[in-house]
Amino acid sequence: MTTVVSSGLAYRSLNPSSVEPFFAVWVLGNGGLLQNYFPNNNTSLRANETLTWTIGVYNHMGSLEYVALQVKLLNSSDTGPNDISASGTPALVEFDRVLTENETWTTPFIWEISRINQADGATKVTELTVNGRVVSVPLAEAADGLNFRLVFELWYYDETSNSLAFSWQSSAGIRTSWVQVWFNTTLV
């Protein structure tokens, strides 16, 4: 019996179980819940209406990782991220941090649309305030203010390329981590 247990322990220590490396990213609504994203559950936002969300990242890559969470404003016709590539839209805001293995990081994301313009059936968001900082929006417009989305893309420092990377290779293929929340805007 001792030989079997010793053999099992030796095998286990020489052949550790494979662990799938991954990152996770999420957005929670007011109160840190999977609800209450919008005032009165109304996804049509007016200027200067403050929303309080929580964004989070979990590191299960097997090592210390530098991560950057890029926040982008897109409409329904803008190319968003997918299972391989990031959106080509520039980030409005970036949150970065070094995470240890199995570390979960959460941070407040308090935002509002500071300035909206409307002309010829198109609604343009020209300014956001994020965590008290005013951010100019280069080009974000949607027909009748419908179908805007905030996209949260997780990037990490890739030592091989010596730069930030959006995707990583796992035993199951190329992986990415991102999330988006859709909303509409209105002037009234």
Describe the structure in your own words:
This protein has a single domain, classed as Immunoglobulins (Immunoglobulin-like, Sandwich), CATH 2.60.40. The protein has one helix and 14 strands; from the N terminus they run H-E-E-E-E-E-E-E-E-E-E-E-E-E-E. It has one helix spanning 2-14, and strands spanning 22-28, 44-45, 51-60, 65-75, 93-99, 104-119, 122-130, 133-136, 141-143, 148-158, 163-165, 168-170, 173-175, 178-185. The strands form three sheets. Strands 1, 3, 6, 7, 8 and 9 form a six-stranded antiparallel sheet that branches. Strands 2, 4, 5, 10, 11 and 14 form a six-stranded mixed sheet that branches.
- SS elements, strand count: 14
If classified by CATH, what would the architecture be?
Sandwich
- Alpha carbon gyration radius: 21 Å
- How many discrete structural domains? 1
Mean pLDDT: 91
CATH H-level homologous superfamily name: Immunoglobulins
User: Sheet bearing the most strands, described?
Assistant: 6 strands, antiparallel
Total of DSSP H or I helical runs spanning 4+ residues: 1
Summarize the structure.
With 188 residues, this protein is mainly beta.
Secondary structure layout:
Elements: H1 2-14, E1 22-28, E2 44-45, E3 51-60, E4 65-75, E5 93-99, E6 104-119, E7 122-130, E8 133-136, E9 141-143, E10 148-158, E11 163-165, E12 168-170, E13 173-175, E14 178-185
Parallel strand pairs: 2-14
Antiparallel strand pairs: 1-3, 3-6, 4-5, 4-10, 6-7, 7-8, 7-9, 10-11, 10-14, 12-13
